[in-house]
Amino acid sequence: MNDPRRQQFPDAVDDYFDNAPCGLLLTGTDDRITLANRTFAGWVGHPPQELAGRRFPDLLAAGSRIHYETHFAPLLQMTGSLTGITLDLIGEDGSRIPVFVTANVRTDAGGAPVALRITVQDATERRSYERQLLEARRVADRERERVQLLAATLQRSLVPPSLTPPDGLVAAAHYHTASPDDVGGDFYDLFPLTRHKWGIFLGDVSGKGAGAAAVTSLTRYTLRAAAAYDDDPVTVLHNLDAVLSHEFHGDDPHFCTVLFGVITPTVDGFDVELASGGHPPALLMSASGQTRYVHTTGGQAVGILKNPRFVARSVHLGPGDTLALYTDGLTEARTGPNRRFDDHDDFLGFARRESPTDAATFVAAVQRLLDGFGAGLEDDTAVIAVSVPPHS
Asked: Do the beta carbons of residue 69 and residue 57 sit within 8 Å?
């Protein structure tokens, strides 16, 4: 039957075939070329008539030829079509031409395959773009690794390399970083003040990143210096408040919440006087298994209010007792939609299940708890615990 479109444009079909912007091939079921357009012939460097009788796989690079003959050709025979597979042609001069190949099977009236229709598209620009994209990703990965290394190094500089408890008191601590790409603002320390007193503190600076790290560093050293000058816990927090208010004010205020304590050895254990600057209460786990918060209700954050109020409470640690300080990254971890871990005193229940305990055991249990939160742990978390061995 005559096609009126062929009569209207007698040369259009031949021109389209020969000069299409992609390579067009017709091969037998044995992959031998019966017809090739000029576009494809120009890529491989042969006149179209010289390609007749040559096997299409022989025009491919070695790796592409192996893939085509062992995988793609059988798949084409089985399914009747291939879409967008990536191969490399080899030109007459040995150059490699990356291409996308699409093909389908031509069948006779009985459904038996008689020929293969193959379309070949130049993928040079696409391959170049992919290489550039891959290199950009490598650069980004290297930069991220650099940032993570810098953040980890800076974070390590903000926590003490070791704790220095008095004889007869055991201490343990853990810092959990929520994001390897940023520096958090949690801090803690345990250090000697005099021959008979030790200082302990834990807190959380507002914000993240380099700004928070600067405040954290200043806060740690100020607490140490202020405690050496006057070891009254409330006075220490007032001195810290004066420094933060002076250094960070106006359009860039920074503040922190903190618990600061002074540990004094006694005949049967240790007395701890804790002052709170708006921080969650410490947790006392006794040798008998009883667990309670050491409430310091009324203490206000440090460095944000004029004439803030700080509250102190005293607690005694005897043999088998453990005292734990923590930051709110733990209690505010998300455990479900619109639900935080400590919404229903879950942390107190967790501590009761662990009691009686000791510093190292409790900190290890908290570490496992934090690891279990996964993505629900959105903020850095620090925990420090001290305990008196049962035999003391």
From this structure: yes
